[in-house]
C-alpha cells in the first residue's frame, strides 16, 4: 500500500520527504494531508462535516469519541447524519438486531450517495470482524467507501486519505491485533467525564457470545499508561472516569507492554489499579464496567469500601439463574455461587446499587430454568436489569444447539420484565426524601429549566438548576421517585438529611 500512496500524494500535499513507518507518527502524517484537503475545500466554500453513528456498548461509545477527535483535528466539524459529508457507522454485532439496524441506515443512505459522489461512507467496529458480514456489505452496499475493524481504529486518517486520493475503496480488516496504538485527544460528549480502556478483548468464550471472536484475546494496558491517561484527562477537566474492559476483574493478564509496577508487584490486578486511580488528585468519581461474577474478588470489595470516590454501583451480569443453563453458557459459576456473591457484596458494601444483564431463551432453557432466573431476580433485588432475548450468533457454539420456540421466549421475556421492573421500581424509591451528591450533566431534554444529573449509583435525577452548574457536583434532595429516576431540588452544599446514605453521598 505504501508505494501506491507515495505515488498518489499530490504535490500540493507533500509535508515530509518520506512517510513515517512508526505509529502514531504515520497517522499524524496522513492526518495532516487530510487536513490540507479539508482546508482547501473550506477555502473553496465547501466546509466538510462528519457524523459518527454509534451502536452498542460503552467501548464503542468511547471509540467513537476518539474517532471524532481525529476527524476534528483534520478540520471536519460535526453535523447530523443527514447533512454530513462523511458518515461513519461504528457497529455492534452482539445481537442480530444491531446488524439489522445498520442495514436500515445503509439502505436509507443509498439514494443520497447516488446523488452526491462526494459523500463518504465508512463502517467500522465489531460487525466488520465477521468475514461473512463484510462480504454481504460489499455485495449489497457496494457504495460504502471505507471498511475497517476493531484492531486498527487508529489508522482512520490513512484510510480516509486512501479513499480521497486513490479514488478506490479503503478496506482494511485485520484478523488479529498487530500493534496497539492509543488514540489521544478524544472529543468527549461530556467534557467532565470520560471512559478509559484498561484492557481489550475477552478470553471467556461464553457459548452465546460473539465478543471474543470480534475483539480478540484479553490484552491489558500497563498501570503506568492507564494512570498517565487519567492524569492527563483530569488536567483537561475530567472529574469522573469509567474504567472499561469486557471483564475488568481479569485485568493484569497479558500486558501489552513492559511495566515496572508489575515487575515490582506481580500480584497487581484490578483492585490495585482501582486503588491507584483513587489516589489521583482532582478526580471525584470512578466507575468501572464490566465485572464477571466468576472472579470478583474480596480484595475488590475491600478497595471499594475504603475509597468513597468509587461509585456505589456494580454491574454484575448474571445472564441466567439456572445452574444448568449457566454451565451450558460456560459462565463458570452456579446459581448458589452468584447469590452468595451478591450477599457478600451487600454485606461489604451495604449502600451498593447492583445492576445486571439477563438473557432469555438460551438454547434448551426450560420453564424450570426460567423459574430459577426469576428466583435469582427476586432474591438479588437488582436496582436495574438489562434484559435480552437470546440472539443466535453464527460461529458461537450455542448457535448450533436446539433453539427455544419464539412464542415461549416472548412469553418468558414479558414475565421477566414484569418482575424486574417492579423490583427496580421499589429499589429506586428507597432514597426518597434523602439528599444525594449528583453530577450535573446536561440541560434536561424536555424542560430547559431543569438539569439532568447522575447519582453515584447511576440513577438519573432531574432538578431545577443553571447551565453554569453543568460538570459540577451538587447536592440534591430527592423529592420524588419515578420508578427509575428522580426529580429533586438542589440544597446548599453541606446540608444533610442525616441518613446513612446521605452521609455516604456527602463523603464522595
Ligand atoms: N444474545 C442475546 N444477548 C447477548 N448478550 C451477549 N451475547 C448475546 C446474545 N448472543 C448480552 C449479555 C451481555 C450483554 C452485553 O449482551 O447479556 O452481558
Ligand atoms: Fe461475551 Fe462472556 Fe466475554 Fe462478556 S465475558 S464479552 S458475555 S464472552
Description:
The structure is a single chain. The protein is of the alpha/beta class and 508 residues long. The chain is 38% helix and 19% strand. It has 16 helices and 19 strands. It has helices at 2-8, 25-43, 58-74, 96-115, 131-140, 156-166, 211-215, 223-235, 260-264, 270-278, 298-306, 323-329, 335-348, 367-380, 406-428, 500-507; strands at residues 49-54, 77-78, 86-91, 120-125, 146-148, 170-172, 193-197, 199-200, 219-220, 240-244, 285-289, 313-315, 353-360, 384-389, 435-443, 450-455, 460-464, 473-481, 485-491. A 6-stranded parallel β-sheet has the order 2-1-3-4-5-6, with helices on both faces. The chain has a 5-stranded mixed β-barrel with strand order 15-16-17-19-18. Residues 94-95, 208-209, 317, 319, 357, 359, 388, 390-391, 393 line the site of 5'-deoxyadenosine.
Radius of gyration based on Cα positions: 24 Å
Total helical elements: 16
- The average pLDDT is 92
> Strands of the biggest beta sheet: in what spatial order?
2-1-3-4-5-6
Would you kindly provide a brief summary of this structure?
This protein is of the alpha/beta class and 508 residues long. The chain has helices at 2-8, 25-43, 58-74, 96-115, 131-140, 156-166, 211-215, 223-235, 260-264, 270-278, 298-306, 323-329, 335-348, 367-380, 406-428, 500-507; strands at residues 49-54, 77-78, 86-91, 120-125, 146-148, 170-172, 193-197, 199-200, 219-220, 240-244, 285-289, 313-315, 353-360, 384-389, 435-443, 450-455, 460-464, 473-481, 485-491. The protein is globular.
Amino acid at each position: 500500500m505504501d508505494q501506491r500512496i507515495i505515488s498518489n500524494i499530490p504535490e500540493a500535499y507533500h509535508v515530509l520527504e518520506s512517510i513515517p513507518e512508526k505509529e502514531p507518527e504515520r497517522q499524524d502524517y496522513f492526518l495532516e494531508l487530510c487536513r490540507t484537503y479539508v482546508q482547501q475545500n473550506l477555502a473553496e466554500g465547501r466546509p466538510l462535516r462528519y457524523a459518527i453513528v454509534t451502536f452498542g456498548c460503552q467501548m464503542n461509545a468511547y471509540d467513537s469519541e476518539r474517532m471524532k477527535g481525529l476527524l476534528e483535528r483534520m478540520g471536519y466539524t460535526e453535523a447530523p447524519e443527514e447533512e454530513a459529508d462523511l458518515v461513519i457507522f461504528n457497529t455492534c454485532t452482539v445481537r442480530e438486531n444491531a446488524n439489522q439496524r445498520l442495514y436500515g441506515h445503509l439502505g436509507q443512505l443509498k439514494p443520497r450517495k447516488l446523488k452526491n459522489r462526494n459523500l463518504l461512507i465508512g463502517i467500522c467496529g465489531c460487525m466488520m470482524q465477521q468475514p461473512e458480514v463484510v462480504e454481504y456489505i460489499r455485495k449489497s452496499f457496494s457504495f460504502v467507501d471505507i471498511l475497517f475493524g476493531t484492531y486498527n481504529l487508529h489508522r482512520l486518517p490513512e484510510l480516509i486519505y486512501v479513499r480521497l486520493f486513490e479514488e478506490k475503496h479503503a478496506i482494511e480488516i485485520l484478523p488479529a491485533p498487530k500493534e496497539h496504538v492509543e488514540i489521544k485527544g478524544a472529543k468527549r460528549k461530556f467534557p467532565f467525564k470520560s471512559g478509559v480502556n484498561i484492557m481489550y478483548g475477552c478470553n471467556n468464550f461464553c457459548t452465546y457470545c460473539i465478543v471474543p471472536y470480534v475483539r480478540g484475546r484479553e490484552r491489558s494496558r500497563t498501570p503506568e499508561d492507564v494512570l498517565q491517561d487519567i492524569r492527563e484527562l483530569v488536567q483537561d477537566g475530567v472529574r469522573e472516569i469509567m474504567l472499561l474492559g469486557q471483564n475488568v476483574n481479569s485485568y493484569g493478564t497479558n500486558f501489552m507492554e513492559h511495566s515496572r509496577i508489575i515487575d515490582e508487584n506481580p500480584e497487581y490486578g484490578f483492585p490495585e489499579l482501582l486503588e491507584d486511580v483513587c489516589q489521583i488528585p482532582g478526580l471525584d468519581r470512578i466507575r468501572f464496567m464490566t465485572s464477571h461474577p466468576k472472579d470478583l474478588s474480596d480484595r475488590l470489595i475491600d478497595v471499594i469500601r475504603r475509597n468513597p470516590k468509587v461509585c456505589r454501583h456494580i454491574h454484575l451480569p448474571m445472564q441466567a439463574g439456572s445452574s444448568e443453563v449457566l454451565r451450558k453458557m460456560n459462565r463458570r459459576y452456579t446459581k448458589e455461587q452468584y447469590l452468595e456473591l451478591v450477599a457478600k457484596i451487600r454485606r461489604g458494601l451495604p449502600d451498593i446499587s447492583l445492576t445486571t444483564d439477563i438473557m432469555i431463551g438460551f438454547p434448551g432453557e426450560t420453564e424450570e430454568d426460567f423459574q430459577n432466573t426469576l428466583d435469582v431476580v427476586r432474591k438479588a433485588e437488582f436496582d436495574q436489569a438489562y434484559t435480552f432475548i437470546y440472539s443466535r450468533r453464527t460461529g458461537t457454539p450455542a448457535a448450533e444447539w436446539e433453539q427455544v420456540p419464539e412464542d415461549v421466549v416472548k412469553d418468558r421475556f414479558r414475565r421477566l420484565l414484569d418482575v424486574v421492573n417492579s423490583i427496580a421500581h421499589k429499589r429506586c424509591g428507597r432514597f426518597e426524601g434523602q439528599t444525594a451528591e449528583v453530577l450535573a450533566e446536561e440541560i434536561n431534554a424536555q424542560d430547559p429549566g431543569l438539569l439532568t444529573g447522575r447519582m453515584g449509583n447511576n440513577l438519573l435525577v432531574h432538578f431545577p438548576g443553571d447551565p453554569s452548574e453543568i460538570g459540577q457536583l451538587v447536592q440534591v434532595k430527592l423529592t420524588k421517585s419515578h420508578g427509575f429516576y428522580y426529580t429533586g431540588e438542589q440544597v446548599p452544599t453541606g446540608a444533610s438529611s442525616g441518613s446513612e446514605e446521605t452521609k455516604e453521598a456527602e463523603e464522595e
